[in-house]
């Protein structure tokens, strides 16, 4: 099988966003697997996006609000190779095995393609490398769910347990 997973979804989302902006659609929400909010919701509030619970992907874990930004989420639950989900499509490049330190990683920033690539890179790189990766990409921030279910956020200022910055 073949999918547009990787950074194609983010790239396509950004292309569609530019087309909509050129056509005068300043308040739009694009979801092609990765998301991009143009402006705010027509009601004047941010767009609200529900994130799957990575332990139970049929349920929602939390909602994030975004305006004028993109959101990309990477999670091993997206494409699995066994019924239990132990083997999935995001690999640890050092071991060749499925990455297991995080259950999911959400990245918010200006562009969907970069957020898409960063969410996968952070998922594969793990917590020890996440703060440096985010710091190298100004304007982006990440929220990761660890294997034990706790969350950690990453910004240019560093990491914080349990909070979305």
Characterise the protein shown here:
- The structure is a single chain.
- By secondary structure, this protein is α+β, with helices and mostly antiparallel strands.
- 23% of the residues lie in helices and 34% in strands.
- The protein has helices at residues 8-22, 112-125, 127-135; strands spanning 28-31, 35-38, 47-53, 56-66, 69-75, 102-109, 141-146, 151-155, 158-161.
- The strands form two sheets. It has a seven-stranded antiparallel sheet, with helices on one face.
- Strand 3 (47-53) and strand 4 (56-66) form a beta hairpin.
- The relative contact order is 0.14.
Q: Stretches where pLDDT falls below 50 for ≥5 residues?
A: none
Q: Helix proportion of residues, in percent?
A: 10-25%
Structural class: alpha+beta
What's the count of strands? 9
Pattern of helices and strands: HEEEEEEHHEEE
Please state how the strands of the largest beta sheet are arranged side by side: 1-2-5-6-7-8-9
Integer-rounded radius of gyration: 15 Å
